[in-house]
Amino acid sequence: MSRTASRPGTPGTGRSTWRNWAGTVSVTPVREARPASVGELAEEVRRAAEDGLRVKTVGTGHSFTAVAATDGVLIRPDLLTGIRHVDRSAMTVTVESGTPLKRLNEALAREGLSLTNMGDIMEQTVAGATSTGTHGTGRDSASIAAQIKGLELVTADGEVLTCSEKENPEVFAAARIGLGALGVVSAITFAVEPVFLLTAREEPMPFDRVLADFDALHAENEHFEFYWFPHTGNCNTKRNNRSAGPAAPPGRVSAWVEDELLSNGAFQAACSLGRAVPAAIPAIARLSSRALSARTYTDIPYKVFTSPRRVRFVEMEYALPREAAVAALREVRAMVERSPLRISFPVEVRTAPADDIALSTASGRETAYIAVHMYRGTPYRAYFSAVERIMTAHGGRPHWGKIHTRDAAYLAEAYPRFGEFTALRDRLDPGRLFQNAYLRRVLGD
Known about the structure:
Strand order of the largest sheet: 16-13-15-14-18-19-17-20
Largest sheet: 8 strands, antiparallel
Low-confidence stretches: 4-13
Oligomer: single chain
Number of strands: 20
Number of helices: 14
Helix content: 25-40%
């Protein structure tokens, strides 16, 4: 039988409250369920429909939006974990939807396999990451969802659909990034390849040089990204390219100094100081950005692509046509310089090739991502609103799991295949069992 959560309840109700990682969303559902199989999951969906309750699934809560919020039945996929099957002839792996990316990466490495690309953290569940369009950076390799070869979906009537390019292809085309609007994903089949090595080259570089060379840096590297420190002209760049080896990971001490002491411990202290004394932020940013040093190391993919992120923040990210990125970044810098804003977090810039997923932020176009962050507990709306005006002027598409204010009217214009997705939603969930306030805003009724 599926299991019910047993965490402290809201006073007077006996019901549990769920909060996301950033603390921007909290919900107190009528009940939580932890199904241990696809059969139990389907039964929970049918039971919710009979009870007139809406259904949403949450993973580890790394979305900043309320995409997974519900006051009805909250599905917790903690027990839907692990690898179902590795097919070495097809070079695929089928994994339960609640499996954290970290566990998947570690399990694949033991099998001598790897995903082709991934984002910069790996705490999310595979279904949560793909359903909201989580991505890394890549010249040729796209988001995690673009690596999906098949998926299993429990629909509003409790039916279990198996989807791929050959089986239920119209569902497959949309459900790889489905926002939880089409059903509950119970398993995903990913394309994999033999594990390989990446050499990472991290190097400070002036903002003006990065922007002048942006097209060349993108073209010359398999994976290029950079971070600009507001209130400075300084950036940190990262170039990841495949390597024949040998492996040369960072030393244990140097890795701890870089990834824990500086990127988390010292950065946490700097952010806390900036929150208490905003006037100090520009000086802190100049000091922090000048402290950066170059380093090069070689390791297996997930150890290069991902890094620990312990400092909590809120985030907004927009996907622009890649050719618009440089102009948009110059506008963001000019806006920050003429405003009273004090920004302690770097601005992150990544890229992705065009893909064919209906609601992918890279659907049908070469893409650059511009992400802005604020330390948790710091007012962020003025900054995000100003950046959002710039992004939307360039035809930007907001990340589905990050803070934004766009609605269905805007998004229907931004996505050529938006109507295809909503028509499929009408067919699979006409009664809106999987609806919530966020989906009503971004997809319409």
